[in-house]
Amino acid sequence: MLYDVAVVGSGFSAIAVTIHLLRLLPRSASTAVVGDDPGFGRGTAYRTEFYVHRLNVPAGRMSVFPEQPDDFVRWLEEHQRQTSADGFATRGDYGLYLRDRLASLLRDEDRRASFDFIKAKATNCIQCSDTGVVFHLDNGARLGARNVVLCLGVGNADLPLERGKIDAGAEKRIIRNPWRLSWLSKVGGGDRICILGSGLTMIDQVLALRVHGHRGLIRVLSRRGLLPRPHAPAGERSPPIEPELARSRDISGLLAGFRRQVGGGVDWRGLMDGLRPITQRLWQSLTQDQRARFLRHGLAWWNVHRHRIAAEVALRFDALRKDGIVAVHAGFLEAIEEDARGVSVSDRERQSGRHLSFNADWIVNCTGMERAGVAHSPLLKQMQRQGLITKDALGLGLSVDGDSRVLGGTGEPQPGLYAVSALTAGQFWEITAVPDIRVQAQTVASAIATTLLE
Ligand SMILES: Cc1cc2nc3c(=O)[nH]c(=O)nc-3n(C[C@H](O)[C@H](O)[C@H](O)COP(=O)(O)OP(=O)(O)OC[C@H]3O[C@@H](n4cnc5c(N)ncnc54)[C@H](O)[C@@H]3O)c2cc1C
């Protein structure tokens, strides 16, 4: 069967695109949603059930419908949750909200198009032409569709160390993907933990370890040792403030403008929030060189100011640092070797250049999102080999045009093939959080619906 649309993936992007297709497609259209995750829609971010895992965006900005910004807040009220529009709900609740909204749209069978949900992984693409795209699935079936939306996420970054510098015997002590939270059940209460990476993933894992009864030392090692900044407490938040962009045709100019404004007493968080609606445009106005420079020198700073944590999460984490339970180091990982009890970790301290080493029972990879184009996905690698897709110039993800249409080897859009979310960061940059992905999901769904109505 040739479907009108196939959505490939099973995280937030896939559920957001599906929800918008349900509202926009004509009744005659057929859609297949192909994903390998049993908790469809939750993906890496929203499958957690730990109450300490909070959203890092206030509830008032997390609706899946851009034109109904209070939809998630209404859901929280209906379900007697105590979170207000400027509070931070649990990520588990957000996953439930998405599934509720999907379920109520699916119930309206008289008005909606047909949707088949197929639990499988798309393994390779065997045709991509004007007549449609055909995939092999890992259940042995073939799936064809006139329009395809790739919602594959970007995967987990690898350890910042070549394989040759990791003892084979140490591998069993390394948690490469901490998002499968089952790893926590292997950890003893007093085990020594080394977390690589000091961003949001690290904070999540520290809090999960504590809830799980871990009471030992947690060492955090990252290149710069920078920690995510907190949101201001509710009631003390500045509204978004427009940044001075007049003379800022590049990142240095923008930063200079920021410093001037902050020096003049303007709240930096308000400025970051004021930048948000124009970030995509600003990114697109930069040359490839300027973008590359930003990634080399500014990314770590951008991440900690832009992707902030709830104030109450920050308080909990700070208390653990003050009590000596969590120690944060800035340094470069050099080797991981097996030792009698666990592993020995060697690093070079950032400030002094000294070589240090310490022992741990577990190494947890919290280096975050992969930003290596298509490396995480066998499907995308195969499509790249066939010339059906290309990596963007900076290697962040796929080359897409301004309408999220995937560009093939010749640089032309592949008919009916779209990508959403962080895979499209080369074109949009600011496309990793719900407020941006929901707009992209709606735009793509609307473009597809328009072609089917013609
Ligand atoms: C821990 C965490 C917390 C976050 N918190 C927030 C927040 O508070 N607010 C906010 O706005 N944003 C937040 N984000 C960012 C954002 O919401 C997510 O990055 C978003 O969920 C991305 O979803 P995705 O579907 O693109 O990717 P993923 O969640 O990675 O999902 C991709 C899915 O596709 C499936 N898949 C991959 N390949 C195939 C294939 N070949 N065939 C079929 N299926 C396949 C995978 O199994 C996976 O389930 C958070 C992100 C993380 C990781």
Summarize the structure.
With 454 residues, this protein is an alpha/beta fold. The chain is built from 13 helices and 15 strands. Pfam families: NAD_binding_9.
Structure description:
The protein is of the alpha/beta class and 454 residues long. It has three domains: 2-155 and 370-453, FAD/NAD(P)-binding domain; 163-229 and 309-365, FAD/NAD(P)-binding domain (3-Layer(bba) Sandwich); 251-306, no CATH class. The protein contains 13 helices and 15 strands. The strands form two sheets. Strands 1, 2, 3, 4, 5, 6, 14 and 15 form an eight-stranded mixed sheet that branches. Helix 1 packs parallel to helix 13 (434-453). 38% of the residues are buried. The structure holds flavin-adenine dinucleotide (FAD). The site of flavin-adenine dinucleotide has 29 residues, from helix 1, strand 2 and helix 2.
